[in-house]
Amino acid sequence: MSPPLPVEAEEFLSWLAVERGRSRNTLAAYRRDLVAYVEFLTGRGLAVVEVTEPVVEDYVAFLRAARRAPSSVARALVSVRSLHRFLEDEGDVEGNPAEEVGPPRVPAGLPKALSETEVLALLGAVAGDDAPARRDRAILEVLYACGLRVSELVGLSLADLDLDSGLLRAFGKGSKERVVPVGRVAREALLAWLAPAGRGAMAPERWARRGDSEAVFLNTRGGRLSRQGAWGIVRHHGDKVGLGNRLTPHVLRHSCATHMLDHGADIRVVQELLGHASISTTQVYTKVSTERLRRIYDAAHPRARGGRPR
Predict the structure, then answer these.
(1) Which of 304, 296, 156, 287 is nearest to 224 (CA)?
(2) Is the Cα dihedral 36, 37, 41, 46 positive or negative?
(3) How many CB atoms are located within 10 Å of the residue 39 CB?
(4) What pLDDT was estimated at residue 62?
(5) How far is CA 190 from the centre of its chain?
(6) Are residues 121 and 84 located together in one domain of the fold?
(7) Helix (H) or strand (E) holding 171
(8) What's this model's pTM, rounded to 2 decimal places?
(9) Alpha-carbon span 234 to 39, nearest angstrom
(10) Same domain, 238 and 173
(11) What stretch of H or E contains 169?
């Protein structure tokens, strides 16, 4: 059980729960951060309302000295800053001592895209023409062709597909809707899955839950495929071609974006396709493509490393 927090911190957590509707897991994470922060302040003989900016800076330095990951330190600082902002808004203190304290730089995680050869091997790994094979082939093709998140894939309903026009409607983060093109091969895979020998063979005589009848992708029991189910399908076929832990549904999304940029797609088009709210998120992929270009150049150009042409 967590040690008790001062009343100001408990009021802040209550406000997060009641007024902001934060989840139980989020509240637990805030509490852990604040317990550690209050322990640090107690060691200095300080109350939360007595904190100054140098104290917060010292706390960040303390966390870094303890070899906490930059992302962990940044998250802890968010909790501290939010607490002091709450106290300022409530009139308990003047100003927010954490407002100007900068978090440590969190290195941008580079997507580990598959090569185009690896993607082709994966897409060719599904054997057979029975209903599960048709479903799995369609899942892999759509994830790669459309750059969907796994939650968007399993959330697809029949009304979201317009295969005559080669389009589908995806609902991303915050239920934001976007229309995504479906390539020829993915469209053919979807049509094969939606045929009587595909989805029709998996559909139950009686649907167990409302909404399952509209689901594009079904599990073997005839219900809407879950995120975990889609993960399992992707990993199963990845294992067959030696991709192992390198492959997740999100890696196919990464690969879609990276390969489009490799082939000259405009970054704004890729942003729209992936449903990124900010262009800066999509720009991570341009770095990946640039680094790949550098590797190819260094390996292929006779003067790249200062050598003589052969």
Answers:
(1) 156
(2) negative
(3) 10
(4) 92
(5) 24
(6) no
(7) strand 167-171
(8) 0.61
(9) 45
(10) yes
(11) strand 167-171
Number of domains in the chain: 2
Range of the domain at 150: 116-298
Report strand pairing: 177-181 vs 161-162: unpaired
Identify whether residues 125 and 77 lie together within a single domain: no
* 200 in the same domain as 285: yes
Q: What is the mean pLDDT of each run of 10 residues along the chain (310 residues)?
A: 80 91 90 94 93 92 88 90 92 88 65 87 95 97 93 95 94 82 94 97 90 94 94 95 90 90 85 80 70 67 58
Rounded-to-integer distance, Cα 24 and Cα 211, Å: 28
* Radius of gyration (C-alpha) of the chain in whole angstroms: 25
| 37, 147: one domain | no
* Burial group, residue 244, by CB count within 10 angstroms (0-12, 13-18, 19+): exposed
- Pair 250, 285 in one domain: yes
- State the sign of the Cα–Cα–Cα–Cα dihedral 231, 234, 237, 241: negative
Q: Distance of CA 41 to CAs 8, 61, 272, Å?
A: 14, 14, 46
- Based on the fold, state whether residues 175 and 273 are members of the same structural domain: yes
CATH number, domain with residue 226: 1.10.443.10
Give residues with Cβ within 8 angstroms of 265, minimum separation 6: none
Tallying the residues shown for the chain, one arrives at: 310
User: In the block, which residue shows the tokens 């090569």?
Assistant: 115
- Retrieve residue 19's tokens: 């007024």
Active site residues: 149, 173, 250, 253, 276, 285
Buried b (16+ CB within 10 A) or exposed e, 191-201: ebbbeeebbee
